[in-house]
Design goal:
The chain is of the alpha+beta class and 186 residues long. Helix content is 36%, strand content 25%.
């Protein structure tokens, strides 16, 4: 009798577990670093190239690639060129390319950034701010401000960090990872 009840309880629990709606889809394996479970985007307040405020709320409802560039190279920096190469690698998938908002935050003064960023396309936003605000944003994202490597974060429409990419990963690999992640995640 006890064995029958145990088997029945197991069967009910198994059936209920199999038919529960999935609340979490795990990220597929990628060459970059999948952040699983995704982490919330830190709070920050900066300005875009047109002088409008830009905060984490501007990341809602869209996929974004945020490049944090701690380098001191003149424009266009190697990190920005790398981000544009990722953008160009997605040209064969225009729907995906247009679904991603590309965001560039250099650590150095970005006052002259506006006109140059606008020439690169409507899917690219350049961010700037007071040095303290920019440094605070870098710290919030865990990026060193000592001239270390630029990092690219994939941010989902849910304002969560889903993946991290470095400059050592080539643009084709990052584009392939983006395709896998965005197609696999809700």
């Amino acid at each position: 009798m006890i064995l029958t009840l145990a088997a029945l309880a197991f069967g009910i629990a198994y059936y209920a577990g199999m038919h529960q709606p999935s609340h979490r889809t795990h990220a597929p394996p990628i060459q970059g670093i999948a952040i699983d479970p995704p982490a919330p985007v830190p709070v920050f307040q900066l300005w875009d190239q047109r002088g409008d405020p830009f905060t984490r709320e501007d990341l809602l409802d869209t996929w974004s690639l945020l490049l944090l560039d701690p380098g001191d190279e003149p424009m266009p920096s190697p990190a920005l060129i790398h981000l544009m190469q990722v953008h160009n690698r997605l040209a064969g998938q225009p729907q995906l390319q247009n679904a991603i908002h590309f965001i560039y935050l250099p650590r150095r003064d970005a006052a002259a950034l506006g006109k140059q960023i606008d020439r690169l396309g409507s899917h690219l936003t350049g961010l700037s701010g007071e040095p303290e605000s920019v440094d605070a944003a870098f710290r919030e994202f865990g990026v060193e401000t000592d001239g270390s490597q630029a990092l690219i974060f994939l941010i989902g429409p849910d304002q969560r960090l889903h993946a991290l990419f470095t400059q050592s990963q080539d643009a084709a690999t990052i584009a392939q990872d983006l395709t896998q992640l965005i197609e696999a995640l809700p």
